[in-house]
Automatic annotation (TrEMBL):
Database matches in CDD domains: AdoMet_MTases (cd02440)
Broad EC category: transferase
Gene3D superfamilies documented for this protein: Vaccinia Virus protein VP39
GO terms (BP aspect): methylation
UniProt xrefs under Pfam families: Methyltransf_23 (PF13489)
Organism: Brassica campestris (Field mustard)
Protein name: tRNA N(3)-methylcytidine methyltransferase
Cleaved signal peptide residues: none
Domain of life, per lineage: Eukaryota
EC number assigned by the record: 2.1.1.-
Length: 307
């Protein structure tokens, strides 16, 4: 495949999303992507109880840690991660093998990174990759958590903050029983190709968990698969388990987002939209003389300050 330069690959808009939408809607062979499946047993709820296990198996199979490339482009997409001040805290949700964590740790010494994944095997891979890439790391901490079914640990945010959308940050006391305002929380949450792997019915709860651990004014940084991305169009009809929702042969799930869905999910959880757009990239397979249209959703959402 050819595409000039990493910065160009992730920052340019090579085509309008409506161009691919028209291609899909006028191709009869792709009509199954436009309709909700009618099979009663073919829904994400059938897979909900075993979301973690397929990812555990996935990371066991790819134990070399080379399946994902380091996502260096993220520091260009989200420069806040480089420009942040001292004592900044970031929660990376769904860290996989560390492809997001590594460039953040390399790019900023001011950030303390907390990383979680539903797969304990993924955390092992992440630690191995970090230790290979960086000589000494004292600003990285990991823990196992499926944020679609479980709350984040209390030490990420004070109890009051978890249940109050409008609390503000205060450093007056370390005792949350004496201080009604938030004294904890993280400055950033990153959701990079993570939410699409969560069963659709669990997404609202998962996003509310992210909201709860952010400091007021904190940012959630989002990137995930967009509607009509090339990978969506490769799924056969029998892999469709819900509207725009698919299951891979290894049992992992994949949802493809339109902008309206993303906006609704995050604003319903209490977030303010800061940025939201499709990132549309055209790559060319020279060997097959074929154009490949990649579509990702890029977003930034802020937890409101107390008025």
């Amino acid at each position: 495949m050819e595409k000039g330069g990493e910065a160009g690959e992730y920052h340019s808009k090579d085509f309008e999303w409506e161009f691919v939408k028209n291609l899909v809607e006028n191709d009869p062979s792709l009509s199954h992507h436009l309709q909700e499946p009618h099979l009663v047993d073919s829904s994400s709820s059938s897979f909900s109880s075993s979301v973690s296990k397929p990812w555990q198996d996935f990371h066991s199979r790819h134990s070399s840690g080379k399946f994902f490339k380091e996502r260096r482009y993220l520091l260009k997409e989200f420069p806040e991660l480089v420009l942040c001040g001292e004592n900044t805290k970031l929660l990376e949700v769904g860290c996989g093998n560390g492809s997001t964590v590594l460039p953040v740790l390399r790019g900023s010494k001011n950030i303390t990174v907390y990383a979680c994944d539903c797969s304990s095997e993924a955390l092992v891979r992440t630690k191995e990759n970090i230790n290979r890439a960086i000589a000494t790391v004292d600003n990285f901490h990991s823990f196992t958590c499926d944020f679609s079914t479980s709350a984040f640990p209390n030490w990420l945010a004070c109890h009051h903050c978890r249940h109050n959308k409008h609390c503000h940050h205060s450093g007056e006391s370390d005792d949350t029983s004496l201080n009604e305002h938030c004294i904890g929380g993280v400055d950033f949450v990153t959701l990079i190709f993570t939410l699409s792997a969560v069963p659709k019915e669990r997404m609202p709860r998962a996003i509310k968990e992210c909201f709860a651990v952010l400091k007021p004014g904190g940012l959630l940084l989002f990137r995930d698969y967009g509607l009509y991305d090339m990978t969506m169009l490769r799924f056969e009809p029998e892999k469709c388990i819900g509207f725009r929702e698919y299951v891979r042969s290894d049992g992992t799930l994949s949802y493809f987002f339109c902008l309206d869905t993303v906006k609704r999910l995050f604003t319903d959880a209490g977030f303010i939209e800061v940025e939201l757009e499709n990132c549309c990239v055209k790559a060319v397979n020279r060997r097959k003389n074929k154009n490949m249209y990649r579509i990702w959703v890029h977003g930034k959402f802020q937890k409101p300050f107390l008025k």
